[in-house]
Amino acid sequence: MRAFLAALASLALTAWSVPTLAQTAAAPVAFSTDEAAVRAVLHQYQQAVQKLDTTGTTRLFVPNSVVLESGSREGTYAHYRDHHLGPELKEFNSFTYADYKADVTVDGNYAFATESYTYTIGLKKDPKAKTAPAPIKRRGVASSVLRKNAAGQWQFVSTHNSAHK
Fold this sequence. Notes:
InterPro entries: NTF2-like_dom_sf, SnoaL-like. With 165 residues, the protein is an alpha+beta fold. The chain has three helices and six strands, in the order H-H-E-E-H-E-E-E-E.
């Protein structure tokens, strides 16, 4: 019995997740290993956007991924990165997430994530303008499907995000 309880305690300790953007000093939440890995992928993508740098993000997506944004089919992540996200990030001084919450459900080799957040975009000042544009603040949501590949890595299969004032 003592060995069983020790193993159970050990398993519980290894299930703690790396804190997400919204977690603070509140009590930690235990996640399964797969759920924690999915949350880590979500976090890595958020961090890249906040750094205004998509370098290395392609590995987070399957090659034939689908990106949907605010009523538009953007194509694969590679297309979205090169023709939408990348050029947009070059126009920003900053991009920050706040009030982040995520629900993740893992079912075998698939995971389903729904996220809600507030984001604020700081735009670069046009050299011809007297002042920088006001920051853009929006409420956003995203729903994503991720799949565990043969190497055990979680990747986005599809993601859909939208926002409003």
